Amino acid sequence: MDLASFVTDSGSIFRDFNSNFMMNRDDSGPSCRGTLWTGIAHAFTATIGSGILALPWCMGQLGWILGPFVLVSFAAITYYTAIHLCDCYRTPDPVNGRRNYNYMGAVRALLGPRNVLICGIIQYSNLWGSMIGYTITTVISMAALKRSISCFHEKGRSARCDVSANKYMLLYGAFEVILSQCPNLEKAAFLSVVAAVTSLLYSFIVIGLSTAKLISSHFDFKGSLMVAHQSSMDMDMPSSTKIWHVFQAFGNLAFAFNYTTLLLEIQVYAQPVFAVHERWLGSTWPTSFLNRIHTIKITFIHNFTIHFTPGRLLLRSIFVTFTTLVAMIFPFFNAVLGFIGALSFWPLTVYFPLTMYTVQANIKRGSSTWIVFQVLGLVSMVVTLIAAVGSIADILENSKHAKLFHIDQL
Hints:
Elements: H1 36-47, H2 55-86, E1 90-91, E2 98-99, H3 103-111, H4 113-155, H5 166-179, H6 190-216, H7 239-256, H8 270-284, E3 294-298, E4 304-308, H9 310-329, H10 333-360, H11 368-401
Antiparallel strand pairs: 1-2, 3-4
């Protein structure tokens, strides 16, 4: 299901809401079975994901002037580069050319194998980092529910409610090990609907709670107009830490506008990582015991048969376990999201899409469009660098006070 399937050569959405006429133009690859509505569902899920959870903190660091300005700027840059990336869905002609089945496929067709290697390292690192971020996010939410239901509800809001989140991290990791064994998520379309509904639901919950808080405080707006050095921050905090937090806020905002998991092909976090390794193992040792499909019949359940591949069972379990352990070692939500956003924003969101479009549309060096691309790329690279510096500095600072595999008060 390709979001780019709903985009014409100018990047506009097809007028027919249920248009599937491109199904017969899919070359030799998998057909496009999506509709406009499934594309919208995935777009909502991607943009209203865990990234928005850090936005209030970002506004607190950047202030009421710079914060909204940076937020709108990231949205505008993302929209602008996404339109140009959609024009690279087919090459060499954006309308009648051969379809590129994923982001790296477009990079391979337009920029060559060397750029594919660089793009692959960055993209898969971004996907893995997103998995760590979602693991931390889920555990934070579980711990918050535990505090609210079992402690605050019984002892009051002023009670000290320390929650050790290790067990929640392990429980979530075990659940993910089971889910990771699903062979194919392409036919589980209901997951996209559920994800979109829940994303919108918790967004409206946050809006409702924030509005209620604002009304109860008689519209007493908190924070400051300027950045973190004002009274919105703890005055005892070192100036260097405040600066790192401002830099890190740029990374968190960049993470909130990460659309490269949607275009040109939806990349469901661990699934592309699994596919690459399993494809390599299957081609390297095709007759190995680990790569053969084995069957187990459950006799006491009528006509119930389990088909599994030992290699996939081991590989996916080890990968999920390792990801969970890393999340336990670095449970720093804001810093991790900031680093992921910094890692992916300039190369994946700006550089590769604009560079591919330059080749696709044969943009001449020195033209006005080329100059705009260069300026946008330079600004985005600077943002990526300062966001990475701020996030790494915060991770190192938090690591000084953290205990290995000991997560308190998430």
